[in-house]
Amino acid sequence: MSSHVRGYLLRVQLQQLIDRLLSQGYQVHGPQVRDGAILYQSLQSTAQLPQGVHDRQAPGSYRLDVSDTERHFSWANGPQALKPLLFSPQETLWQARRESDGHIEFIVPPPVEHKQAALGVRACDLAALRLQDQHFLEGEYIDPYYASRRKDLFLIAVNCSHPADTCFCASTGDGPVAKAGFDINLTELDEGYVVESGSEQGNHILADIPLIPVTEEQEALCIQQAQDAVVAQSRTLPQIKLHDLLKTNFEHPQWDDIAERCLACGNCTQVCPTCFCHSEGDLASLGGTESTHQREWDSCFTAGHGYLAGFQVRPDTKSRYRQWMTHKLDSWQAQYGRSGCVGCGRCTSWCPAEIDLVAEARILTEPGGPNGAIGASGENDE
Predict the structure, then answer these.
(1) How many Cα atoms occupy the beta-carbon half-sphere of 331 within 13 Å?
(2) pLDDT score for 113
(3) Which pLDDT score is estimated for 375?
(4) Residue 380 has pLDDT above 60, yes or no
(5) At what angle do helices 317-326 and 254-261 cross, to 10 degrees?
(6) Contacts of residue 265, Cβ cutoff 8 Å, sequence gap at least 6
(7) pLDDT above 50: residue 371
(8) Cα separation, 10 vs 75, whole angstroms
(9) Residues 345-359: pLDDT tens digits?
């Protein structure tokens, strides 16, 4: 990047930023309240943003409150991250069609290319995107559908100022302040935003928007807000060594305790911003002349995911939860050089059984657990 744009954006100028993106051909996605949660939806106006909305999260609980503040981003997250914009929940990989002469033609739909922009991206979700990029773009096989969407994705991060009680991104090193991976980064204050560019594309979008110089007082407020967001996080994910869960604690009795509570519903994997498991199947037409081969999100909690070569390798809830957690926190380190957890806390908030990932990880990896051998269910492990 040849230069670095930085300044102060008044709250009323945020619409100019959205209009600038729309004029450049981007489909803008932004946070909006839908069905009691904050979701990314198509955005044209700041009036659609969740002004004065706060989220209250706890194990198995997600609620929204409204106050009279003018802030648009005084919440932690919703059930979505960036994953649905890039790794489609369902898409066609190829089609097969039988011609009248009996010849079968295979048709591979080309990747759809269109410019997308996401406003309100959290630091933890930027870290998750980096992991998704490693999986879909940097391995031996590049996913062309993910690549086509990723190529023109414009990211506007907003530093988190109001972490939820389930957040622990500070302990994973992924938040609450975005460090890299954005085109534009905003820090929301009461009357506006401290804005900085992170790419040439970010410079281009900000070029025609008049910015005010940042004052020392605003700089101090940004620093204090970030520090307060760290202090507000009561959960801390323990540092898990490679093979600590997979080998050292593979037969820990806490796995049985978790299995008694886990519903194997797969909610945690659906809301997780880094999970990438999927299944593939064929959908045949009623006439028998055409079929569509589709890919869709899957979960390691389903029976079909563990069915290999006529044998079920994970026959029960215990083995399925253990697979998910050991892969996420342990063996992922060998694959991608870090844990697969970015501290967003979604798996805890959206778990109907109220299973707390951080509490379980502590019990499984720390002698005696966080409460002297008392499990997360309140029962003595011994």
Answers:
(1) 10
(2) 84
(3) 34
(4) no
(5) 110
(6) 301, 352
(7) no
(8) 20
(9) 999 999 999 999 999
Alpha-carbon distance 89 to 126, whole Å? 19
In percent, how much of the chain has pLDDT > 70? Answer: 95
Bridge partners for 41 per DSSP? 30
Residue type for 275, please? Answer: C
What value does the mean pLDDT take over residues 79-107? 91
Q: Which residues pair with 291 in a beta bridge?
A: 96, 284
Identify which of 206, 198, 127 has the alpha carbon closest to the alpha carbon of residue 160: 127
User: Six-digit token pair at 176?
Assistant: 């609450």
- Given a cut of 90, is residue 51 above it in pLDDT? yes
Tens-digit pLDDT profile for residues 155-182: 999 999 999 999 999 999 999 999 999 9
> d(Cα 146, Cα 185) in Å, to the nearest integer?
23
Q: How does 273-308 read in b/e, with b if 16+ C-beta sit within 10 Å? A: bbbbbbeeeeeeeeeeeebbebbebbbbbbeebbee
pLDDT digits (tens, 9 = 90+) for 102-131: 889 999 988 888 899 999 999 999 999 999
> According to the 3-state scheme, what is the secondary structure of the chain?
CCCCCEEEEEHHHHHHHHHHHHHCCCEEEEEEEECCEEEEEECCCHHHCCCCEEEEEECCEEEEEECCCCCCCCCCCCCCCCHHHHCCCEEEEEEEEECCCCCEEEECCCCCCCCEEEEEECHHHHHHHHHHHHHHHCCCCCCHHHHHHHHCEEEEEECCCCCCCCCCHHHHCCCCCCCCCCCEEEEECCCEEEEEECCHHHHHHHCCCCCECCCHHHHHHHHHHHHHHHHCCCCCCCCCCCCHHHHHCCCCCHHHHHHHHCCCCCHHHHHCCCCCCEEEEEEECCCCCEEEEEEEECCCCCCHHHEECCEECCCCHHHHHHHHHHHHHHHHHHHHCCCCCCCCCHHHHCCCCCCCHHHHHHHHHCCCCCCCCECCCCCECC
- Does the pLDDT value for residue 2 go beyond 60? no
Rounded Cα gap, residues 313 and 303, in angstroms:
9
**Angle at the Cα of 83 from the Cα atoms of 355 and 146, rounded to 5 degrees:** 145
Give the model's pLDDT for residue 377.
37
